[in-house]
Amino acid sequence: MEKIISIKNLNYTYPDSKKPAINNLTVDIYKNEWLSIVGKNGSGKSTLTKLIDGLIDADSGTIEIDGQEINENNIWEVRTKIGIVFQNPDHQFVGATVEDDVAFGLENQGMPREQMVKEVDHALELVGMHDFKKRDPQTLSGGQKQRVAIAGVLATKPRIIIMDESTSMLDPEGRRTVLNLIQNLRQQQDLTIISITHDISETELSQRIVVLSDGQIVRDDIPKNIYNIGTNLSKFGLEEPFSDELISTLRDSLELPEGYLNEEELMKQLWKLRSNM
Fold first, then answer.
1. CA-wise closest residue to 37 among 260, 242, 218
2. 209, 258: one domain
3. Do 254 and 165 reside in the same domain of the chain?
4. Number of CB atoms found within 10 A of residue 126's CB
5. Where does the secretion signal sit in this chain (predicted)?
């Protein structure tokens, strides 16, 4: 697999702190990968995001984005390859209408209006929000607002999208819709997705999970292996996925395969058991 981000021996301590926020961290992220970074508050997740996007400078270590090591001479060029969707969609809106908001980043790039209209329409089509382009963003639901925020990022054609706790304020249906949308976009647009979250239940669609604690990587594995840690996830300030808790309870009275089962696998097993009754 081809690397798109390579981080080596990264260190960062905030000026008003003696404890490192990022402590000698090394990790590679690959093209078209969905990587989830999880950990409790204060584990270093948001700091790592700021370092990757060049919002703060590391004390030591290196970050390469698509083969370029970030430095003061190329940071603006590197940033064009990264888009960030934040936690609260209301904090991201700057336009009076949905289409104005999606066009904001393109206006900053100086794109000609005719081309801008095409790019905005295309981005809204990708997220299923084209019919809402004349609407005031404040009249939309939480899930719709995040889809518009994603469209605004897509319009600038990044290679990497960072989802910074971007589904934490949504209801379960809205969260599921946004996560499924991101999965489809990753596959269709050849994007790399980095999902930052404290809720491990939001990581099921990712291909790999990195667990951070005190600015260090304590686990780096596929989701199934991380979920199989079970109640020991609490050591890192994480809750066991609900489906895993349910499976543990069901195993007291039903014969189920060992290891983690996602919701679809669990449903298949339950239907199989029911048909054998």
1. 218
2. no
3. no
4. 19
5. none
Q: Are residues 169 and 276 in the same domain?
A: no
Instruction: Give bridge partners of residue 67 from the DSSP assignment.
Output: none
For residue 183, the domain's CATH number is 3.40.50.300
- Per-residue CA distances from 198 to 38, 165, 234, 240, 267 (Å): 5, 8, 12, 12, 26
- pLDDT(276) > 80: no
- Residue 260's domain comprises 241-277
The percent of residues above 70 in pLDDT, for the chain, comes to 91
Could you tell me if 39 and 213 are in contact, meaning their C-beta atoms sit under 8 angstroms apart?
Answer: yes
Q: Are residues 204 and 254 in the same domain?
A: no
Does residue 129 register a pLDDT over 70? yes
Tokens of 233: 């996830």
Read off the pLDDT of each residue in 192-212 and give the average, rounded to a whole number.
Answer: 92
pTM over 0.85? The answer is yes
Q: Is residue 224 part of a domain?
A: yes
Q: Is 194 in a helix, a strand, or coil?
A: strand
162 in the same domain as 43: yes
Q: Is the dihedral of CA 85, 90, 94, 98 positive or negative?
A: positive
Among 220, 224, 211, 263, smallest CA distance to 242 is for 263
